[in-house]
Design a protein that fits this description.
single chain, alpha/beta, Rossmann fold, 3 domains, six-stranded parallel β-sheet, five-stranded parallel β-sheet, 15 helices, Histidinol_DH_CS, EC 1.1.1.23
């Protein structure tokens, strides 16, 4: 693993994956096919890509009951507790409609309205993600979204993982469908015989899901185009090399393109972490994923001062940031760009992934410079309220008409002046 000193000209590489022209073409064809042929296209693609021949897309109550039976009671209890923690955190984000009255009697405000519907994509593939269900559904439920639809690719047996189904049921999802990939995104965006179209699509997926979300954006809203997972660790000599290495590998095992970076003021720690990562990789079950991630996208940077280290972190703008330093809380005020900030040795990144409550759907690929974690506001619309009083209209009408004429919009001006005739 490369170790290098921080320099003023340190270049942060961004790995935006826009897909190949062939992938983009495949996605467009799939979307058009779903728009034209509905469920028939979904059945065909599910058999082709997932190896499952289905006759019904919707998950039945029997399947949900079987999922509960397949899970240990303690695991079900843990999922319920995690759901409660996530709900409690997001409840604090919820805002209400507000109004105020000016001295002249005019009333202004903002009306908040939840979306009518939302679609949640839960990835399948190399792992099952009950946590992704909770993190996408709970803020939508808190916002008051009336209809939440979940889609996820089935296994070859035509079923969804037990943990995913139990998490969806605990979160209160009523419409769960066994379909994934670009075809699932198309179904959510445009509707089929079984799946009614939604207003917004959230949730991560592979490159075909990401490209499909980009393609349908505008017809529906989306959360973000999520890239590979990232972690940056800000550490000094007080940090444990074993803990830092374990935390970096916790993200590297997600994806061969995932990024794990350490920025430290301690050269001895940097060398220890590099050795520790190699040692831990030797026993990691997903080493075939984590090793290329570390080799191609991992890095250790040594900074001369903590100020320089913090500046480097802000340049990276990581999805996840851990601060493992003496007096770690003091550095939070200096962090401008990070999706989620984990402070102190007991706040290992998986604490946020699964259980603490804050959302784990976070901006990647440096987009933490201008975007935020998935939150309740993402599932609400804001409408401005304007109620001008006669006093205000009489006082400012001529000014408004003059402004309209400055822009060459005579009808605008006349719309004001008609009220004075």
């Amino acid at each position: 693993m490369k170790i290098e000193k921080v320099t003023a000209g340190l270049s942060i590489k961004r790995s935006v994956d826009a897909g190949t022209e062939e992938q983009q073409s495949i996605v467009r064809d799939i979307i058009q096919d779903v728009r034209n042929n509905g469920d028939q296209a979904l059945f065909a693609y599910t058999e082709k890509f997932d190896g499952a021949k289905l006759y019904s897309l919707k998950v039945t109550q029997d399947e949900i009951n079987e999922a509960y039976a397949a899970l240990d009671d303690q695991m079900i209890k843990i999922i319920r507790e995690a759901a409660d923690n996530i709900a409690d955190f997001h409840a604090k984000q919820k805002r209400e409609t507000w109004l105020y009255t000016n001295a002249d009697g005019s009333i202004f405000g903002q009306k908040l309205t939840p979306l009518d519907s939302a679609g949640v994509y839960v990835p399948g593939g190399t792992a099952a993600y009950p946590s992704s269900v909770l993190m996408n559904v709970m803020p939508a439920k808190t916002a008051g979204v009336g209809r939440i639809v979940m889609v996820s690719p089935p296994g070859k047996d035509g079923r969804l993982p037990a943990g995913v189904l139990v998490a969806a049921d605990i979160a209160g999802v009523k419409d769960i469908f066994k379909v994934g990939g670009a075809q699932a995104v198309a179904a959510l965006a445009y509707g089929t015989e079984s799946i009614k179209a939604v207003d917004k699509i959230t949730g991560p997926g592979n490159i075909f899901v990401a490209l499909a979300k980009r393609e349908v954006f505008g017809d529906v809203d989306i959360d973000m185009i999520a890239g590979p997972s990232e972690i940056a660790v800000l550490a000094d000599e007080t940090a444990s090399a074993k803990e830092v290495a374990a935390d970096m590998l916790s993200q590297a095992e997600h994806d061969t393109r995932a990024s794990a970076v350490l920025v430290t003021t301690s050269e001895p720690l940097a060398k220890e972490v590099a050795l520790e990562i190699e040692q831990q990789l030797s026993t990691l079950p997903r080493a075939d994923i984590a090793r290329p991630s570390i080799a191609q996208h991992g890095a250790i940077y040594i900074a001369a001062t903590m100020k320089e280290a913090v500046r480097t972190i802000n340049d990276i703008a990581p999805e996840h940031l851990e601060i493992l330093t003496e007096n770690a809380l003091e550095y939070v005020k200096d962090i401008k760009h990070a999706g989620a900030i984990f402070v102190g040795r007991y706040s290992s990144e998986p604490v946020g992934d699964y259980f603490a409550g804050p959302n784990h759907v976070l901006p990647t690929n440096g987009t933490a410079r201008f975007s935020s974690p998935l939150n309740v506001d993402d599932f609400m619309k804001k409408s401005s309220i304007i109620m001008y009083s006669k006093e205000a209209f009489d006082k400012h009408g001529a000014k408004i008409a003059a402004f309209a004429r400055l822009e060459g919009l005579e009808a605008h001006a006349r719309a004001i002046e008609a009220r004075n005739e």
